[in-house]
Amino acid sequence: MKYSIVGIAALAALLVSQGCSSVTNSGDTSHDGHSSEHMHHHGHSTKDKGENSTITQAKLTTPQKILPNQSVPLVIAIQDTQGKPILKFDKFQEQLMHLIIVSDDLKIFNHLHPNYIGDGSFVIDTNFPEPNNYTIFSDYKPTGDNERVSVMNIKVTGYTPLPNELAKYSNTKNLLDTKVSLTFSQPTLKASQEVNLKFDLREATNNQPVKDLQPYLGEKAHLVIIKSSSPLTVSDYIHAHALKNSPQGQVNFITSFPQPGTYKLWMQFNRKGKIHTADFWVNVK
Fold first, then answer.
1. Distance CA 63, CA 41 (A)
2. CB–CB of 219/199 below 8 Å?
């Protein structure tokens, strides 16, 4: 959905009139926010802060009550520490903002690209499939500055069923027309060690290497990695970039896991104009 400046003003006024929830959380590795009766949480993004960098924060405005499987408008305002809007942004990976939404148990994952409507504000409609606590990673790049990640939280109310048995560790994921297998450049994943994550993509029907991968956001594929933690923070989030010289039918990513623990990986690729997501759990020593 596209929004105009007038439209966003009307939307913000509607959210306020209905009783809105406004959250401003940090992009730093700690959460020193405080809350008021109107649910304001304050923090700052300090990722890759250089000498001339501006400390930023992301303010999220939503309806006060969010129900499962209903369309919800999200308004994300990028500001400095004084609350003044950051006005200009650079594209990276073909977008001005990447919004990664995960449930805190990492069962639910969504990768969105909000529309920039000016005055530092981005907007998008989405839905949350089930009652849960959700963490939102807002990934953006103020013009002339470093890429930033700000973290926000949403609670979707309702009955939460008891969790099913934890997902088993598996290195193969069968999608509709693609079998994706994950291997590593070393037998054991160790914290702080560089590793090559190799995703092998084969036709589900004949097990031949996939030959029709199309670019997704300007790259062969994309990989988001999040450490299983509570609460989730910016230090738990990794957005890796595909190597351009990966062999046919394979997508490789060079990355490292900062701490020991359990991580979930979502590898996204484009076949025949459709975005596929293959997810895997890994254990890091």
1. 16
2. no
CA distance 132 to 260: 26
Task: Kindly write down the DSSP assignment for every residue of 95-133, as one continuous string.
Answer: BSEEEEEEETTS--EEEE-PEE-STTEEEEEE--SSSEE
Is residue 136 within 8 A of residue 59, CB to CB? The reply is no
Those residues whose C-beta lies under 8 Å from the C-beta of residue 16, and which sit 6 or more positions away, are none
> What's CA 207's distance to the chain center, in Å?
31
State the pLDDT at residue 1.
43
Does this model's pTM top 0.70? My answer is yes
**170-202 exposure pattern, b = at least 16 Cβ within 10 A, e = fewer:** eeebeeeebbbbbeeeeeebeeeeebebbbbbb
- At 176-201, the pLDDT tens digits run 899 999 999 999 999 999 999 999 99
Closest CA to 150 of 34, 46, 10, 264: 46
DSSP annotation string for 26-77: -SSSS------TT------B-TT--TTPPPEEEEEEEESS--TTS-EEEEEE
Q: How many residues does the chain have?
A: 285
CA distances from 87 to 96, 160, 213, 220, 262 (A): 12, 40, 36, 31, 38
> Is residue 201 within 8 Å of residue 210, measured between CB atoms?
yes
Half-sphere exposure in the Cβ direction for 57 (13 Å, CA)? 20
